Model the fold of this input.
Amino acid sequence: MGLKVLHVAQSSEYGLGRYLADLLHDQAAAGWHVAMAGDPASALRGMVDVPWLPWSASRDPGPSVAGEVRALRGLIHSVDPDVVHLHSSKAGLAGRLALRRSRPTIFQPHAWSFFAVHGMKRQAALLWERMGARWADVVVCGSEGERAAGERAGIRHRVWRVVPNAVDTDRFAPGDRDAARSALGLGSAAGGGPLVVCAGRLAVGQKGQDLLLAAWPAVADAVPGVRLVLVGDGPDRARLEDLAAGMAVSFAGSSDDMPSWFRAADLAVQP
Done:
């Protein structure tokens, strides 16, 4: 009999959605009994063939947390999983409060919550992550840098695991750059300067595209004809468009064809 796993995420869009789609598919294919608790309107729901348990939660902590914890506790009881895997900050908050290590618990931050906030909110997020670490059996980080950032912030845990994000090497195999640029309406590689593609959710607190734009004039001075395309969408798009005004920078929005963008680029950046 396969392992029974419940995954929980407040939001499963953008990069996290892609990550979860691959993870859920892989675990189900291995014979595990996998279920997902999350937003009933998530696009991920139509991408995976696993039981979906509707769990609605706000992005930020606040008065709604108590109700979200109660609802999640009920879902966990109904599934009775062997392991609960909590993804990102809000599920990590509600899930650890609901479980308090009453059953094996994995927490995966997918970028620490305190990266995206400032002032008192940052202090509160830091305090919670330091306290909440005791209610996870394992903390999984996507890179050694993420793990080290947690430790520098005072998060102490007995068991850290660094598991880099998997890459489908067939889907992202190198290809014809001119064909990719033509398909994306960018013109040929021979007809213009170097193309830099930055792919990621437009959220400066977590992804830092504002830092890239601050450095871009120096890059443009040093590399004649260089172009930058930001691929993705998110809450800070308008702010980033303002920062990019007057520069050789364009915004492509969300894309389902990331392999073409990476093939088209002379340099690809994924924050």
About this structure: The mean pLDDT is 91. The first helix runs from residue 14 to 29. The radius of gyration is 20 Å.
